[in-house]
Specification:
By secondary structure, the chain is α/β, with parallel strands linked by helices. It is built from 11 helices and 13 strands. It is globular and about 60 Å long. The relative contact order is 0.14.
Length: 305
């Protein structure tokens, strides 16, 4: 399979590229710095210097079987007005420009599939409601509206005859990035614990299964539309904290007040204080087998030896 990947040097992108290459697929990375991306990933790379303002070169997409679009500013940071604008525009505008390039290719040259990033935050704040892909409306908070706008831009490719899969990815377990990386120092110091009461659900997923589900989407022509990329059983923040403490052999019962998290992270704290009980109904329906379906083994692997 010939696959173009944007955001290829990020946590998910780099892991995906290596997995595709290991399978024998032909991968092209689209990057602001093609030389650095090529050297880092050992694959051909095409320059996409300003994804918010310009379309990628047609030659970067021509003749590929599929595109995986993972480009976006890091969400796990303090949300100033400028940061929120960059988080949104880096996703929405880059997707608009990507689809713009796809529209200029002939049907014979155009990739047949687009797997585009999105987030479980699409569902908004819904307490302990079990959420699968049949939920009709997004939430009304910043991340929900961001995800809705992001998905809308990707779905414009459907009018071109492109199969579009929208990966609503949960909280990725990896010590190299994302929420877990930020949690680890506190837990390793023995001062971790449930946040804001700990009753909110965490739609966790191991990095291996994010990559596995993405490859599954590339291969499976039955897949289209929203897809929850989350482990089969989300857990509460309290359960996650308790399990992480056990894995690290550290106490994990010190409660963390919501106010303390808001003071540290500002509006971004909503990700931790609230949550989604998202379940991967579509993946399971089509037969995807999770490598890490249970939390404790997943955390043991994600936190390393």
């Amino acid at each position: 399979m010939r696959v173009a990947v944007t955001g290829a040097t990020g946590l998910i992108g780099a892991t995906l590229v290596r997995a595709l290459v290991a399978r024998g697929d032909e991968v092209t990375a689209l990057s602001r710095n093609a030389e650095r991306a090529s050297a880092t990933l050992d694959v051909p790379a095409e320059t996409w210097a300003d994804p918010k303002a310009e379309q990628p070169r047609l030659d970067a997409l021509r003749g590929r079987d599929a595109v995986v679009h993972l480009l976006g500013e890091v969400i796990a940071q303090r949300w100033s007005d400028e940061a929120k604008r960059e988080i949104r525009d880096s996703r929405v505008l880059s997707t608009r420009n990507l689809v713009g390039s796809l529209s200029q290719l002939s049907s014979g040259e155009r990739p047949r599939a687009l797997v585009s990033g999105s987030g479980a935050g699409w569902y908004g704040h819904r307490g302990d409601e079990r959420l699968d892909e049949s939920a009709p409306e997004p939430g009304d908070d910043f991340l929900a509206q961001l995800s809705a706008d992001w998905e809308a831009e990707a779905r414009r490719a459907e009018a071109l005859g492109v199969r579009v899969v929208l990966n609503r990815t949960g909280v990725v377990l990896s010590e190299s990035g994302g929420a877990l990386e930020k949690m680890l120092p506190f837990f390793k110091a023995g001062i971790g614990g449930p946040v804001a009461g700990g009753h909110q659900y965490v739609p966790w997923v191991h990095l291996d299964d994010v990559v596995g589900a993405t490859i599954f989407a590339l291969e499976n022509e039955q897949m289209s539309g929203p897809t929850n990329v989350t482990a089969p059983e989300p857990v509460t923040n309290r359960e996650l904290s308790k399990t992480l403490g056990r894995v690290l052999r550290r106490p994990a019962f010190a409660p963390v007040p919501a106010l303390a998290v808001k003071t540290l992270y500002g509006e971004m704290a909503e990700i931790v204080i609230t949550g989604q009980r998202a379940v991967p109904a579509r993946l399971e329906e089509l037969g995807y087998v999770f490598r890490w379906a249970e939390l404790e083994p997943a955390l043991r692997d994600a936190t390393g030896p």
